[in-house]
Amino acid sequence: MTPLDATPEPGIFAASRAAAEKAGFSSFRHVRSTGSTNADLANEARAGECSAAVLVTDHQSAGRGRLNRAWVDDAAGQLMVSMRIPTTWADVSLIGAAVAVLVRSTVAADGVPALIKWPNDLGVRRRDGSFSKLAGYLGEYVDGAEPTVILGMGLNVETSPFEGSASVHGEGGSISRDDILAALLGGLRGLLAEPARVRDLLLAHSATVGMRVRVQRADSDLVGEAVGLDDAGALQVRSGGVVHTVSVGDVVHLRTTTD
Prior knowledge:
The protein has helices spanning about 15-25, 35-45, 90-110, 175-190, 195-205; strands at about 25-30, 55, 80-85, 115, 120-125, 130-140, 150-155, 210-215, 220-230, 235-240, 240-245, 250-255. It is α+β, with helices and mostly antiparallel strands. It folds into two domains: about 15-205, BirA Bifunctional Protein, domain 2; about 210-255, SH3 type barrels. The strands form two sheets. Strands 1-2-3-7-6-5-4 form a seven-stranded mixed β-sheet, with helices on both faces. The radius of gyration is 18 Å and the shape is globular.
């Protein structure tokens, strides 16, 4: 199903629509169901529609995360949204980080102790050291007539549909999907104009920096201590007395030094 086939719910996401218009997004669409909001906006960009746009849905039949992993939803309690953002708005490497920082601050203000797990997850750390996922992010660069970034997010707001996940309301929050999205859209362009602040906040609220980690890479795994982030947001890992800079990889938080 494409977004044009789906039927929008009238009156839903009113605050987000207003925030999107004020922020300079040329369109805001809400649909009940589609295959993938990222794919929909990317396909439009490849066909020549490169304007700033927002597409939000209640259910994705083909939602995907990093490494082509499926994103699971229950068609009820998640905020699933993609934004098409012109590269003229900001450095491409900054966009995902800015979204993570804004969503974290919004749910934290609602009482949820969220942290940002490198490279693209938001969640809460449990007493046993485990990490329960609240949200995932996926970005895609589309080199069309006007280059754009498609940045998608799936956030568990009311329910947590898979084992080991968490939700905003399950962690004591009460904020609505509309208010979360309105805060994100309303604050994004201003924050994108402050790259140093984005990186400072990303580091300050990192779930990964300071942890012993295993970075799973295509060629080999790297085990060590996550000690920081560089100016481009890459993870810095100290292993064997050497600090390695990791731009791509899956990170596992290790609970003990013997892992």
